[in-house]
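Quick review question:
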């Protein structure tokens, strides 16, 4: 038990609906939609959200805020704001499939092409930052953007301050293949040619967004991954209050593995090695289910053994696109999540 637990206890008491008839876990009505919280960043989180919005109407994304590259990095450096890029991608993924939703998804993802200062900036990044400056509240601003887009869920930053990602990397310098260096910045870590040994965030004890902590505590399911392992997935476990909430929540927890190793960051990683490095960063974290694409697991026994260390069962399902690309198919991933929620949930069915 940590020194942050009393704060989590207060948040739990303040969380709407917990324990109330027809709302909280103990009183949820038969047929109600599950409360799902998805943690991650970038394209991996977008894939998960695109799937989850198909099976639940109560969805919250908790997004990493360590990006320091591209448009986000420029806005962060110039204005001192949270990097908006991964938040924008999550909002776009939550847009509906109707004309309104798809039009706004394209608009906020649109990047300017020019010879001037606007080159490379995404429209959604500028919109989010403008509302942050107008309202002075990042959560309220993101809620307003979500309302404008008709987003089918809520998007929250994991921390209230922009974070710097630092990694210990072996062989980052090709001239010193056995040398270990500290590599700074998410963009640099993601593209390192070396072997990432561990990551941390600066500041080392960042404040979690209270609404994100409350959402995890009140969830029925928490989904972690897929995504860039060291720069999008593990950083959530480095925010102490968020990690405490993940360990104390009554929700069931599913870890969604990537379809393939990521060049640079996880080059050569097996599915079970992803679990091993996760355990090194959060040794007390428990999981209920590890989801993997059946075609991406050559050694099922080793993956099952690695999952047992978290107390988790392994679920294998076809979740990849049929075109051979290492990308998740939203419909297939939705079907896998839906089956897991029904087979492993403490309550249900929801539909």
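Suggested answer, residue by residue:
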């Amino acid at each position: 038990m940590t020194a942050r637990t009393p704060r989590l206890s207060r948040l739990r008491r303040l969380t709407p609906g917990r324990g109330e008839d027809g709302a909280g876990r103990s009183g949820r009505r038969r047929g109600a939609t599950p409360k799902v919280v998805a943690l991650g960043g970038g394209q991996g989180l977008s894939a998960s959200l695109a799937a989850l919005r198909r099976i639940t109407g109560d969805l919250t994304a908790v997004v990493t805020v360590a990006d320091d590259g591209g448009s986000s990095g420029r806005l962060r450096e110039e204005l001192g704001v949270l990097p908006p890029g991964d938040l924008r991608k999550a909002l776009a993924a939550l847009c509906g499939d109707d004309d309104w939703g798809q039009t706004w998804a394209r608009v906020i993802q649109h990047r300017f092409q020019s010879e001037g200062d606007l080159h490379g900036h995404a429209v959604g990044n500028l919109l989010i930052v403008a509302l942050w400056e107008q309202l002075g509240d990042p959560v309220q601003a993101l809620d307003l953007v979500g309302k404008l887009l008709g987003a089918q869920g809520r998007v929250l930053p994991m921390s209230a301050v922009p974070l710097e990602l630092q990694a210990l990397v072996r062989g980052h310098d090709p001239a010193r293949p056995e040398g270990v260096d500290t590599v700074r910045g998410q963009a640099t870590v993601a593209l390192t040619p070396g072997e990432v040994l561990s990551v941390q965030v600066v500041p080392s004890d960042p404040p979690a967004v209270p609404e994100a902590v409350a959402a995890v505590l009140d969830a029925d399911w928490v989904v972690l991954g897929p995504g860039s392992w060291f720069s999008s997935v593990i950083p959530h476990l480095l925010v102490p209050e968020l990690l405490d909430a993940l360990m104390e929540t009554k929700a069931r927890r599913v870890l969604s593995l990537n379809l393939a190793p990521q060049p640079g960051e996880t080059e050569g990683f097996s599915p079970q090695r992803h679990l091993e490095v996760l355990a090194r960063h959060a040794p007390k974290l428990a999981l209920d289910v590890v989801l993997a694409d059946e075609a991406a697991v050559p050694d099922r026994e080793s993956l099952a053994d690695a999952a047992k260390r978290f107390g988790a069962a392994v679920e294998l399902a076809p979740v990849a696109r049929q075109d051979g690309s290492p990308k998740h198919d939203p419909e297939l991933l939705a079907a896998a999540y839906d089956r897991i929620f029904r087979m492993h949930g403490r309550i249900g069915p929801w539909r």
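Why it works: Confidence is low (pLDDT under 50) at residues 1-6, 9-31, 347-351. The CA atoms of residues 151 and 258 lie 25 Å apart.
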